[in-house]
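Hello,

Our lab assistant flagged a job as stuck in the queue for most of the afternoon. It eventually completed. Since we weren't sure the result was trustworthy after the delay, we are filing this so someone can double-check. Below is the sequence as submitted and the structure that was eventually returned. Let us know if re-running is recommended.
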Amino acid sequence: MRIRSALTALVVVLAGLVASASSSTAAGGTTAAPYCGITWGSAEKSAGALSDAPLVDVRTGRHDCYDRVVFEFAGPVDGYAIGYGETWTEGEGLALSPYTAGGALLRVSLRAPAYDDDHLGTVPYAVGEHVTNVLRYSTLRDVVFGGSFEGYSTFAVGVRARLPFRTFVLAGPGTHSRIVLDVAHQW
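-- returned structure --
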């Protein structure tokens, strides 16, 4: 009787192990489709060279799968470095994280000034100022101006969490150009 009970228990345990192994193999054999087809990743992205075309506008937009920040310049610009981490004000070195809403911080360094040839500001923001309203956005929580110094302009972009993002350059309208930052709503 004891042998039969022990064998029955052994068969039940083995059956459980076999079922567990086959279900994990089936689950591991398929991968979930990326959210909205997004495969951007969250590593730092950089490109382009320094330009003297000044920044003239910053705006945001909501889309089905991502939130967008657009930096518009009065001329051709293609230089940027964007990645997760602390953002410092240009020229002062003051950390912007205490002043930027969000669970993660994107450090945006644009390789173009926010001032003209006479060193007059070309955007109406002061250092540390929140530049756009992102109320009701899925991912964006804040966009803070970090200043412009020696041809570089800095922004802290607060997002809900560390999420995939992409950056690219668009020509136009007219002689203007735009650097676009899209941050996905989820992985």
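-- support follow-up --
The delay was a queue issue, not a problem with the job. The result is valid. Strands lie at 45-47, 55-62, 66-73, 80-84, 104-110, 140-149, 152-159, 165-171, 177-184. The radius of gyration is 25 Å.
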